[in-house]
Amino acid sequence: MSKMAVRVPFVDLNFQHQPIQNQLEQAINRVLNQGDFILGKAVADFEAAFAAASGAEYGVGVASGTDAIALGLQACNIGVGDEVILPANTFVATLIGVLRVGAQPILVDCDPDTALIDLEAAAKVVTSQTKAIIPVHLYGQMVSPKQLLDFAATHKLLIFEDAAQAHLAERDGYRAGSVGIAAAFSFYPSKNLGAFGDGGMLVTKDPDIAQKMVRLRNYGAAQKYVHVEPGTNSRLDTLQAAVLLAKLPYLSQWNCDRLNIAQQYDTELAPLASAGIIPMQNQSSRGHVYHLYVIKIDDICSLERQQIQDKLIAAGIQTGIHYPIPCHLQPAFTYLGYQQGDFPQAEKLAKQILSLPMYPGLSSSQIKEVVAEITSIICSEQQQLLYI
Ligand SMILES: *Cc1c(COP(=O)(O)O)cnc(C)c1O
Questions:
Q1: Ligand 1 center–CA 69 separation, angstroms
Q2: Beta partners for 60?
Q3: Single pTM value for the model
Q4: Which of 124, 141, 349, 357: CA 20 to 30 A from 190?
Q5: What is the 3-state secondary structure (H, E, C) of 99-133?
């Protein structure tokens, strides 16, 4: 089959940027004119605006989401001798953050319907050394704040949210970033709020954690040339902050567009449930911000995920897999001692999940095209099976 031109891309950021190109250029030009490239005005302005939007008091901009996790854990005094619980099916950056502070990562399995961390499984691995849990608000859906707060209170643990995929997500009346002691966000370009490069932020209600984070991102300096701890250089660029500040007013609308797209996918895909095409569950109603729209290709489906993905790309439809290898099976982390079979749900999901095109601006007719293509792929397979 010859490869078609892309009909439906996986992500297209032009829909976000073109309508506000003037504002983006003005924001960038202001920084050029002011020349305050490092920790300039736009950084402080964006930190305040984004923290407030997330239901937190303080925001500290850093160079990436990964640094927001690693430096954030350090700012929360989590480190050597502490165990930290996190899901096996997250982007590796969550795990890397824990390892960077010298804490012991304790991985747990996930709920197969939502792909969110399984708190019952988490309860079984709590020890006297456990200091914190990192709920990952995966795909844009928060881990239930009510259940998390109960869990953390029962076991006397800190909650450190990985909110890299969940800007402005809501559940149980909480915003992502307002549940735990602190939360890490990423502004990687394709995240719900994305910069023109890398960026991240720690948000918190705790002034001491915010202060420590301000030092850690700036060589551990309490004031210029007085270094009170071994920090690093991890600042959010003023240029990136200016871009993010210009985009922030549109974030709610973009999230709303994502939700509407997801609801159309849900409706159009419903007839395929009996053929084994199952969308991940939304348990947070309108609070899900759908960073990704993920379906499962179930055991009962007549085709493997790989076959469906190949046929879609041949038809000009791009998809993704988030993520194909769970953290415990990554070559870099075999030394942690986990094995195949340790987290059956995460392992099964890694084989079955498929992320469909999702971005503000994806049109209703494109959604129909995607679903029609999946339907035709599955029906033609079922037809062929009838003739064998
Ligand atoms: C994107 C992401 C990160 C890392 O963010 P970067 O800005 O790419 O360093 C961490 N955790 C999750 C769940 C992510 O999706």
A1: 9
A2: 202
A3: 0.97
A4: 349
A5: HHCCCEEEEECECCCCCCECHHHHHHCCCCCEEEE
Task: Name, in order, each residue with C-beta under 8 angstroms of 172's C-beta and a sequence gap of 6 or more.
Answer: 142, 144, 145, 146
Q: Across-strand partners of 218? A: 233
Q: Return the ligand 1 atom nearest residue 67 CA.
A: 9
Mind listing the domains of the chain with CATH numbers?
14-109+116-249 (3.40.640.10), 251-386 (3.90.1150.10)
Residue 59 CA to residue 199 CA, distance in Å, equals 13
Protein residue closest via CA to atom 2 of ligand 1: 164
Provide the pLDDT for residue 381.
Answer: 78
Q: For residue 3, name the pLDDT band (cuts at 50, 70, 90).
A: low
DSSP conformation letters of 324-385: SS-GGGSGGGGGG---TTSSHHHHHHHHHEEEEP--TT--HHHHHHHHHHHHHHHHHHHHHH
Q: Cβ < 6 Å from ligand 1: which residues?
A: 64-66, 90-91, 93-94, 136, 162, 164-165, 186, 188, 198, 200
pLDDT score recorded for residue 231: 95
Q: Each residue of 282-319: pLDDT tens digit?
A: 999 999 999 999 999 999 999 999 999 999 999 999 99
